[in-house]
Design a protein that fits this description.
This protein is an alpha+beta fold. The chain has 2 helices and 6 strands; from the N terminus they run βββαβαββ. The longest helix has 19 residues. The protein is globular, with a radius of gyration of 14 Å.
Length: 128
């Protein structure tokens, strides 16, 4: 099997031994994104809505590098520090995804890198 690393300067750089995304057999596996502004390298200010919007924007930039978009996403995993903010996150999430919606799991976690409120990863399919 061949796999290809995907990388773009329009999303935060990987800060460890992993790729922003990997493509294999028409599938794109996107690493979790946190609300880092790729221009400043800092966490975006604001609450869960602003952080969710930045995370999804970062994922969008990596998807575009792969030649796809949110219509290609089949599965996401959302990691939230506070499940009480699920409704706010979900409202912003709905701005980025339309029917048929990807499958999704949402997990409450104790902590995330850089003290952020949210991280989202995704799987997309570019070819049937």
């Amino acid at each position: 099997m061949s796999k290809k690393e995907l990388r773009t300067d329009k999303a935060p750089k990987a800060i460890g031994p992993y790729s922003q995304a990997v493509m294999a057999k028409g599938m794109v596996f996107l690493s979790g994104q946190i609300p880092i502004d790729p221009l400043t390298g800092g966490v975006v200010s604001g609450g869960i809505a602003e952080q969710t919007r930045q995370v999804l924007t970062n994922l969008k930039m990596v998807l575009e590098e792969a030649g796809g978009g949110f219509d290609n996403v089949v599965k996401t995993t959302v990691f939230l520090k506070d499940l009480g903010k699920f409704g706010e996150m979900n409202a912003v999430y709905g701005e980025f995804f339309g029917p048929p919606y990807p499958a999704r799991a949402t997990v409450g976690v104790n902590a995330l890198p850089k003290g952020v409120e949210i991280e989202i990863d995704a799987i997309a399919v570019l070819a049937d």
